[in-house]
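Table S2 (text version). Query chain:
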Amino acid sequence: MKKRGYLELPFSWIFALIVGAFILFIAILLIVRITKTETSSSDIQTSKEIGILLNSLEISYEEGVSNSITLPQYSRIYSVCSNSGSFGNQGIIVNEKLYNKWQKSYLQASLQDQYLFLENFSEGRVFYIFSKSFDFPFKVATLTYFTPTTKSYCFVNPPYEIKTEISKIDQDNLRVLGENCTEDSLRICFSAVAQDCYVTVNYNQNYLIKNNTRFDYYKNALMYAAIFSDKDLYECQVKRLIQRANSLVDIYEKKIFLSSYSDCSKDISSSLGLFSSYLDSFTKSKDFQTASQILNDLNAKNQYSLCKLW
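Corresponding structure-token output:
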């Protein structure tokens, strides 16, 4: 009996141990919750800062020239697209990597006038950015392309126009074959006979094949968009661009009706009406294949009009 007494603890000690364990549990729980809250706050703050950068690109950034952005932490950037509303919506989600674990956050910064293209998500800490204007045939919006510095692209046998453009962009991870392409570069091929192609571009017929999926495009701005994004994001952003183009057509039609343009732009009014009908019936990027004749006629009439609309 005396030996068993050595194993017995006073009730006060047991109570103190239980209370201490409970306090420790609460403290750990609070630390975890505070850490998650701070991480979420950091993620949404980074998303907003990227949004501010995109707005500055739209206003003042020189088209077709590369820039870079460095994030506070190694992160994944997601471009979230929605077609709701007049112009749809561009969302940006940033998930940071802390303590070798991805911190998932679904909070997003929302932008109505931006069009961000990247592949599923873009991962890294330093990212390259360049932009191009999408004209259809008037300027509709500025498209922005995100690529991580850890991923490189090699353009194989591109047309002279693209080769010149890549040179002007001067981005370290965009190179033309024969000009410092690395062995691990993703090959963007402009020739059907090229080997090991990540993307095959049919430049004359305005479409490309990526992951066995066809992307139809109109002009170089959307060609780059297709190269640097996945199919779902690409189609959603295309629909947003068409929504915006349709609203701009309404503005131009009102401009003709309400101003002196009605005296010298009667010839363009009918073409603008045809273009509006085309936009109303637009459902997916494949419809770009039927746009050339309408756009060429519209552009020609505007160019030779006494009162240009754009």
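Notes on Table S2: The chain has two domains: 40-236, 248-303. Residues 34-41 have pLDDT under 50 and may be disordered.
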